[in-house]
Design a protein that fits this description.
The protein has 7 helices and 20 strands. It has about 300 residues and is α/β, with parallel strands linked by helices. The protein is about 25% helix and about 30% strand. Strands 1, 2, 5, 6, 7, 8, 19 and 20 form an 8-stranded mixed sheet that branches. A 5-stranded parallel sheet has the order 10-17-11-12-13, with helices on one face. The protein has a 3-stranded antiparallel sheet with strand order 14-15-16, with no helix packed on it. The two termini are about 20 Å apart. The chain binds flavin-adenine dinucleotide (FAD). Flavin-adenine dinucleotide binds near residues 14, 39, 108, 242 and 282.
């Protein structure tokens, strides 16, 4: 069976593209092993038009419900492992089989950046998390550390301040780089201690996380910050975790380079949302880009005959 379009990634970009593509009459399949995207972990969203304030997970459920109402075979909860470009179409290999399509839309968003320091992988999901909203409740009334110096670190700290006894905010820079309003809210919190100019060197503990080893960038002294949980919030990066038999053009940040019509350097492969070199990463922008991509793909497939 050959689809008109396979969309990889069911965040706002992929879901929105799917809506327009199905409504335009294209035989579409949306693949994602964790549908909903980053919105699932976004806490409260207050800047999506039509919703004054909504929990991210509720917003993403509403997005998904809308798509599922178009037909129950549109979304397949599988991870894409490989895309092969053949002469006039593509073959997509996923965790439960393979399927062909005339065009591909990549809307895989971004993933949390890692620190790449000692014992980071060892403690991952066992004391160390990249998502405060997902795992914060595990550390109720405990001492934790948040590592990072921008909005996502501030967001996580604010969120955890209602749950945890104490939060050490570990920042390698002399200032916090996030929004002033957000910073001002965090600096008023009694249970938050911000450590500036400190580099995270690794995580401590045998089988259970016991703390973070940090180095003061000015004095060179190292010390242990004792805590039972750590949240690494140092930003996001685009990472394609599937193979391709073609070379997609990306920039130095790993973002897929697209033109104004969401075309990549490969004929028939389009991209939209946070995974692209579009500057601003927001739900409404991802949704708009997904919509535009679907309309362009519709025209592209019509011209192919
Ligand atoms: C903590 C946090 C708070 C935020 N708050 C806001 C906010 O208040 N307002 C706002 O506008 N924006 C906010 N954002 C940003 C917003 O969530 C993103 O800009 C938006 O979700 C991007 O949508 P997307 O569809 O491009 O990608 P994503 O939402 O990242 O979705 C990508 C999808 O691709 C899937 N995928 C990846 N690889 C594969 C594969 N190999 N096979 C199958 N599927 C795959 C993933 O599982 C994921 O579901 C926030 C982000 C974070 C992290």
């Amino acid at each position: 069976m050959r689809k008109d379009l396979i969309i990889i990634g069911a965040g706002p970009a992929g879901l929105s593209a799917c809506l327009y593509s199905v409504r335009a009459g294209l035989d579409t399949l949306l693949l994602d092993n964790f549908p909903g995207g980053q919105v699932n972990n976004s806490g409260i969203v207050e800047n999506y038009l039509g919703f004054k304030s909504i929990l991210g997970v509720n917003l993403s459920n509403q997005f998904l419900e809308h798509i599922l109402s178009l037909g129950n075979k549109i979304v397949l909860e599988e991870k894409v492992l490989k895309i092969e470009k053949l002469e006039k179409h593509f073959k997509v290999f996923h965790t439960d089989g393979e399927i062909e399509a005339r065009a591909i839309l990549i809307s895989i968003g971004t993933k949390c950046k890692k620190l790449y320091v000692e014992k980071e992988d060892f403690f991952s999901n066992n004391g160390l998390s990249y998502c405060a909203i997902c795992d914060g409740a595990l550390y109720r009334d405990r001492e934790v550390a948040v590592i990072g110096g921008g909005n996502s670190a501030l967001d996580a700290t604010l969120f955890l301040s209602n749950i945890c006894k104490k939060i050490y905010l570990i920042n390698k820079n002399p200032i916090m780089k996030g929004d002033q309003l957000l910073f001002s809210s965090v600096s008023k919190l009694k249970n938050v201690e911000i450590l500036y100019n400190v580099q995270t060197e690794g995580f401590l503990g045998e089988n259970k996380l016991e703390g973070v080893r940090i180095r003061d960038k000015i004095t060179g002294a190292t010390k242990k910050v004792e805590c039972e949980g750590v949240f690494v919030k140092i930003g996001m990066e685009t990472k394609m975790d599937f193979e391709t038999n073609f070379k997609l053009e990306t920039n130095t940040k790993g973002e897929i380079i697209i033109d104004r019509e969401n075309r990549t350097n490969i004929d028939g492969v389009f991209s939209a949302g946070d995974s692209t070199n579009i500057e601003f990463k927001q739900i409404v922008i991802a949704a708009g880009e997904g919509t535009k991509a679907a309309l362009v793909i519709f025209k592209y497939l019509k011209n192919q005959g």
